[in-house]
């Protein structure tokens, strides 16, 4: 892992712990708002999508029949990843908050803490990789850190 | 140092040519900024924001549209410019109201703010025995639970502090899935970005406000984007479990948040399975299983109560597409803006049909999008969805319709066969015909873009609640104790659902017509009788606000004079005492020392 990859991987959990720290700022402060909003909108999704990215990539994407631009598919994949980062984050926030309400355990701090822990675990977990195309000759095993 | 005059003229011309999209975009945004600074929303008429807007707003929108059209059709331009213009459109379309109005628009948004407040107060999900009909929100709590967390984490008083910006946020959420869906079927950026533009200008139905639908719709498109891109028949199953997990996570989020969207999603996925190239049942089975699991558990109390009525409405198309009593546009402004909305939707649907008819290659290649456009239609047969089904169906159809409508505006789509035909046409066509071919679609795009404003903001007289109105209603809830009752003509006022766990409501225009006539005939006595069941420490209030009058007048219920007579009758009756009054309305309390018995 290059230092750059390490930084990218650690950004989401850092964002979560930063958002937790930002709760010490006065309510309504722009810094607190920015830290919380950015993390909730992208943090959990970035960590979870990053965890699954190698395995997700192996399934080929459908593209236009008359596709001629080699960069087009690459940009579509990037857009898809961005979309998943946002939507997985939104989904994680809504599901965690609902579960805490349903179990009579809701506080906003618990929601943020749970999401930050989830993000941290995902960031530190080895990347998931799909099974290789030829059975019996794996290039990398599922859960391998390679 | 090189003197500028030393540079070759061609270079300067190239630079100027490269800079014009930025100049046009900045001009449009400058006109918009000038307009919002010089627009007065303090005295809206029946045309809502349309007549209040400074003329430079319209000029800005026209400049933006023309700039977009010229940029998107120029292959030499960077592919980022159409995106920048679409973002400009979103700012002008969806942020104008947030900038202009000092308070959030729309009574439904205020209602959802009330639900968030209630969740925060209760700290748990409640049933019908505690909150009556409002328990439906506790059975689909996803959106509200997340907003409750956000309110606390931001440290603000309530969601009303930020919900005015929700239309912009929720519209931005749609951008990525729509782009992905369109990019699955074409590389032609003219088609992709024009389809996006048309989607946004035709999406006037107002489901972008602070609501579960706004997020559920984005996630619905997210699931469709994943299915269209990753579930074609490739025979390669690697990585499928994780893609299914991604779909499942989005589906769970939709299912715990909104009633209609899972049904729309299931219907769309089922229709996609009709195509051989998308005959993969995994996404459909995943979504349906999650939907049924929620319906059979958390949502069961609501569904078991509502099921008989739901079954009755199946097949009753007339009732399902009817918008119901109290929704008939009344008055020149309401009728004109209502027709603008109908014409806008009709034109985009017509353009979509033209696109399907004219673009044979595209019709074949983008058949899944055509099916996505048609999939929501059976819902018109299934349910009325509180008299809103026709609008929801239109919204769910739009992603597919907008694609083919854009294809209708573009003479030829860049396919291998189409390109050869286009070159031949361009060579043989007379210059006048070529000009018409370029100018006609621009005029159409311009007309549709401008029509968005009356369609979306034409009823702002109903939707806008000035700060005085918020202040007056807040006064009620500052005073009202447990078991109090608030009587009003209708529910079109801010904070109408504040403290709904402890304060009851009675909106008399929603009552039986004969009872409304009785109230009009003898207002104070009839209302006092209606309110006499309230016992101490509860209090009974009658609230009159300008929002109620606007809603009643513009939707064909009682007119302003009739409502004023009711107010005067209450004001002059010894049964009531004036509690508060300002420019936005007045608040009366029923005297409980025998007043109701008179």
From TrEMBL, chain A:
<feature type="transmembrane region" description="Helical">
    <location>
        <begin position="7"/>
        <end position="25"/>
    </location>
</feature>
<feature type="transmembrane region" description="Helical">
    <location>
        <begin position="82"/>
        <end position="105"/>
    </location>
</feature>
<keyword id="KW-0472">Membrane</keyword>
<feature type="transmembrane region" description="Helical">
    <location>
        <begin position="31"/>
        <end position="53"/>
    </location>
</feature>
<keyword id="KW-0812">Transmembrane</keyword>
<protein>
    <submittedName>
        <fullName>Uncharacterized protein</fullName>
    </submittedName>
</protein>
<keyword id="KW-1133">Transmembrane helix</keyword>
From TrEMBL, chain B:
<feature type="transmembrane region" description="Helical">
    <location>
        <begin position="18"/>
        <end position="35"/>
    </location>
</feature>
<feature type="transmembrane region" description="Helical">
    <location>
        <begin position="391"/>
        <end position="413"/>
    </location>
</feature>
<feature type="transmembrane region" description="Helical">
    <location>
        <begin position="241"/>
        <end position="261"/>
    </location>
</feature>
<keyword id="KW-1133">Transmembrane helix</keyword>
<feature type="transmembrane region" description="Helical">
    <location>
        <begin position="366"/>
        <end position="385"/>
    </location>
</feature>
<feature type="transmembrane region" description="Helical">
    <location>
        <begin position="163"/>
        <end position="182"/>
    </location>
</feature>
<keyword id="KW-0472">Membrane</keyword>
<feature type="transmembrane region" description="Helical">
    <location>
        <begin position="434"/>
        <end position="453"/>
    </location>
</feature>
<feature type="transmembrane region" description="Helical">
    <location>
        <begin position="84"/>
        <end position="101"/>
    </location>
</feature>
<protein>
    <submittedName>
        <fullName>Glycosyltransferase</fullName>
    </submittedName>
</protein>
<feature type="transmembrane region" description="Helical">
    <location>
        <begin position="55"/>
        <end position="72"/>
    </location>
</feature>
<feature type="transmembrane region" description="Helical">
    <location>
        <begin position="213"/>
        <end position="229"/>
    </location>
</feature>
<feature type="transmembrane region" description="Helical">
    <location>
        <begin position="281"/>
        <end position="303"/>
    </location>
</feature>
<keyword id="KW-0812">Transmembrane</keyword>
């Amino acid at each position: 892992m290059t230092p750059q990859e390490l930084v990218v991987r650690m950004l989401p959990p850092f964002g979560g712990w930063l958002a937790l720290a930002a709760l010490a700022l006065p309510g309504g402060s722009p810094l607190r708002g920015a830290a919380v909003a950015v993390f909730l909108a992208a943090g959990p999704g970035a960590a979870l999508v990053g965890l699954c990215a190698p395995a997700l990539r192996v399934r080929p994407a459908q593209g236009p029949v008359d596709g001629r631009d080699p960069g087009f598919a690459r940009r579509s994949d990037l857009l898809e990843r961005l979309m998943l980062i946002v939507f997985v984050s939104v989904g994680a926030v809504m599901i965690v908050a609902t579960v805490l309400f349903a179990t009579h355990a809701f506080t906003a701090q618990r929601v943020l803490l749970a999401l930050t822990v989830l993000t941290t675990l995902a960031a530190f977990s080895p990347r998931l990789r799909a099974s290789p195309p030829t059975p019996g000759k794996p290039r990398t095993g599922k859960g391998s850190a390679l | 140092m090189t003197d500028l005059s030393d540079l070759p003229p061609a270079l300067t011309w190239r630079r100027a040519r490269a800079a014009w999209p930025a100049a046009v975009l900045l001009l449009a945004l400058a006109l918009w900024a000038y307009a919002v600074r010089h627009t007065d929303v303090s005295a809206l008429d029946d045309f809502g924001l349309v007549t209040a807007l400074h003329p430079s707003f319209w000029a800005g929108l026209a400049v933006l549209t023309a700039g977009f059209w010229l940029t998107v059709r120029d292959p030499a331009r960077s592919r980022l410019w159409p995106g920048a213009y679409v973002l400009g459109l979103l700012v002008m379309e969806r942020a104008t109201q947030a900038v202009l109005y000092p308070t959030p628009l729309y009574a439904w948004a205020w209602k959802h703010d009330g639900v968030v407040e209630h969740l925060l107060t209760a700290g748990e999900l409640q049933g019908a025995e505690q909150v009556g009909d409002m328990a439906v929100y506790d059975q689909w709590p996803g959106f509200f639970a997340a907003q409750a967390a956000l309110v606390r984490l931001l440290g603000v008083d309530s969601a009303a502090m930020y919900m005015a910006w929700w239309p912009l946020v929720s519209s931005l959420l749609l951008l990525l899935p729509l782009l992905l869906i369109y990019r699955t079927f074409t590389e032609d950026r003219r088609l992709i970005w024009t389809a996006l533009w048309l989607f946004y200008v035709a999406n006037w139905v107002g489901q972008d406000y602070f609501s579960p639908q706004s997020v559920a719709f984005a996630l619905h498109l997210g699931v469709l984007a994943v299915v269209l891109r990753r579930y074609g028949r490739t025979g390669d199953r690697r990585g499928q479990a994780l893609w299914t997990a991604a779909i499942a996570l989005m589906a769970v989020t939709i299912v715990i948040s909104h009633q209609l969207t899972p049904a729309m999603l299931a219907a769309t996925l089922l229709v996609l399975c009709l195509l051989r190239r998308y005959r993969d049942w995994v996404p459909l089975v995943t979504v349906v299983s999650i939907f049924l699991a929620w319906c059979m558990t958390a949502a069961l109390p609501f569904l078991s109560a509502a099921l008989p009525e739901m079954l009755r409405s199946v097949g009753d198309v007339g009732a399902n597409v009817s918008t119901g009593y109290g929704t008939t546009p009344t008055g020149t402004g309401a009728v004109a803006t209502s027709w603008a909305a109908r014409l806008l939707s009709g034109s985009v649907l017509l353009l979509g049909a033209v696109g399907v008819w004219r673009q044979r290659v595209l019709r074949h290649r983008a058949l899944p999008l055509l099916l996505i456009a048609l999939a929501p239609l059976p819902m018109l047969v299934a349910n009325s969805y509180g008299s809103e089904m026709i609008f929801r169906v239109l919204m769910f159809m739009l992603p597919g319709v907008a694609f083919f409508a854009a294809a209708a505006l573009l003479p030829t789509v860049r396919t291998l066969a189409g390109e050869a035909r286009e070159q031949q046409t361009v060579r043989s066509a007379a210059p006048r015909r070529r000009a018409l071919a370029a100018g006609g679609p621009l005029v159409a795009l311009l007309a549709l873009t401008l029509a968005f404003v009356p369609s979306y903001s034409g009823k702002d007289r109903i939707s806008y609640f000035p700060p005085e109105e918020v202040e007056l209603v807040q006064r009620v809830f500052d005073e009202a104790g447990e078991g109090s009752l608030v009587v009003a003509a209708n529910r079109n006022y801010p904070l109408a659902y504040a403290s709904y766990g402890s304060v009851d409501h009675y909106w008399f225009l929603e009552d039986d017509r004969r009872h409304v006539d009785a109230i009009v005939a003898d207002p104070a006595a009839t209302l006092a009788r209606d309110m006499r069941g309230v016992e101490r420490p509860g209090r009974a209030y009658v609230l009159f606000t300008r929002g109620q009058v606007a809603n009643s007048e513009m939707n064909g219920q009682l007119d302003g004079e009739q409502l004023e007579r009711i107010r005067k009758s209450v004001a002059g009756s010894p049964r009531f005492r004036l509690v508060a009054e300002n420019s936005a309305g007045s608040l009366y309390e029923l005297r409980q020392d025998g007043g109701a018995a008179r």
